[in-house]
């Protein structure tokens, strides 16, 4: 009952937090591992903590277009130095026929660009092994031309077929404004206190990652240490209640806790949003997690009473 009352109270509290301009660094979620993103799964485990009322989500009443979870693409890529091409890496050769059907990319907080399949690019012995824009021409992968404008160099994008991914399901993503007024600062402190009460663990820092649509907000929450136990969460306020995706770790030292050389800290710049889309199951979030040696991209899905990770993921090694 206490959590339910707190969640209701936060609905009015969060309206005082204004949104306006925003937030890079590999994300496995596992201690000192850099090759893969945070463990992905469609079923939720013990680390998935939810505070949500037993009430149907009203957002679909306002959103006629939805993305089909069953038709989500498995492909990600990143852009070259001048924003004119994207390469899909991490895939075997021989998928030209399939890849030629893909016609759009999504990234940069929901921006879309039309693309056209160009060719399979054979890797070069001049490659540095880094999946970055300055090594683009030396990497093995599927290259697409970007047709309408220039995408952001070296950024990760999700590659889709318009016939399978309804672009109208994408929601507006609003970056957070600079905090300034006493009312905003006070509201943030109250938010920290209420989340601490919900989770029975003190919150040391909280950052707004983005506003999503008309009333949802996404947060990064850092909780107080308990001995060697460390915890941060991605928290979604869905307009009524909070849903949490937890990332616990055991710190043997304060050099590499969640990621190699992370210093035991997280920051909002590590977690840019690629996209937010409405689905029949709930809100779908495409996110990246930057670390010292690379970046991993993954999906979080609000599915009824849960916020969990899907099996679709992408990682690239970018260490200098």
* H-E string: HEHEEHEEEEEHEEEEEEEE
Based on Cα principal axes, name the global outline.
Answer: globular
Strand order of the largest sheet: 1-12-11-10-9-8
Distance between the ends: 51 Å
Oligomer: single chain
Total number of helices: 4
What structural class do the secondary elements suggest?
A: mainly beta
Global Rg? 20 Å
How many beta-strand elements? 16
- Percent of residues in beta strands: 25-35%
Question: Tags for this entry?
Answer:
single chain; 320 residues; mainly beta; six-stranded antiparallel beta barrel; 34% strand; disordered N terminus
Description of the structure:
- This protein has 320 residues and is mostly beta strands.
- It has helices at 2-14, 59-62, 96-99, 182-199; strands at residues 50-51, 76-79, 85-88, 104-107, 111-121, 141-146, 156-160, 173-174, 203-212, 216-223, 229-237, 242-250, 273-278, 283-290, 294-303, 306-317.
- The protein has 4 helices and 16 strands.
- A hairpin with a 4-residue loop joins strand 13 (273-278) and strand 14.
- Helix 1 (2-14) runs antiparallel to helix 4 (182-199).
- It is globular.
- Residues 1-9 and 15-57 have low confidence and may be disordered.
């Amino acid at each position: 009952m206490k959590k339910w009352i707190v969640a209701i109270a936060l609905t009015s509290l969060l309206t005082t937090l204004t949104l306006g301009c925003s937030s890079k660094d590999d994300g496995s979620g596992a201690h000192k591992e850099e090759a893969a993103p945070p463990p992905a799964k469609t079923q939720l485990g013990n680390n998935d903590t939810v505070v949500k009322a037993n009430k149907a989500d009203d957002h679909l009443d306002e959103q006629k277009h939805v993305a089909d979870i069953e038709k989500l693409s498995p492909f990600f890529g990143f852009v070259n130095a001048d924003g004119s091409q994207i390469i899909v890496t991490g895939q075997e050769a021989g998928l030209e026929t399939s890849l030629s059907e893909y016609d759009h990319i999504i990234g940069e907080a929901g921006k879309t660009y039309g693309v056209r399949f160009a060719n399979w690019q054979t890797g070069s012995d001049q490659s540095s092994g880094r999946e970055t824009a300055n090594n683009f021409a030396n990497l093995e992968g599927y290259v697409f031309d970007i047709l309408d404008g220039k995408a952001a160099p070296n950024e990760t994008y999700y590659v889709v077929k318009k016939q399978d991914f309804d672009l109208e399901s994408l929601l507006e993503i609003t970056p957070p404004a600079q905090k300034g007024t006493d009312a905003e600062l006070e509201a943030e402190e109250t938010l920290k206190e209420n989340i601490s009460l919900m989770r029975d663990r003190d919150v040391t820092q909280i950052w707004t990652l983005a506003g999503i649509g008309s009333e949802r907000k996404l947060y990064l929450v850092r909780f107080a240490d308990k001995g060697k136990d460390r915890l941060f969460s991605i928290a979604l306020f869905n307009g009524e209640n909070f849903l949490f995706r937890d990332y616990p770790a055991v710190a043997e030292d304060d050099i590499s806790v969640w990621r190699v050389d992370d210093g035991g800290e997280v920051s909002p710049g590590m977690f840019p949003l690629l996209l937010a889309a409405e689905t029949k199951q709930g809100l779908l979030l495409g996110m990246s997690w930057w670390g010292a040696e690379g970046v991993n991209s993954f999906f979080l899905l609000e599915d009824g009473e849960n916020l969990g990770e899907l099996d679709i993921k992408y990682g690239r090694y970018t260490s200098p």
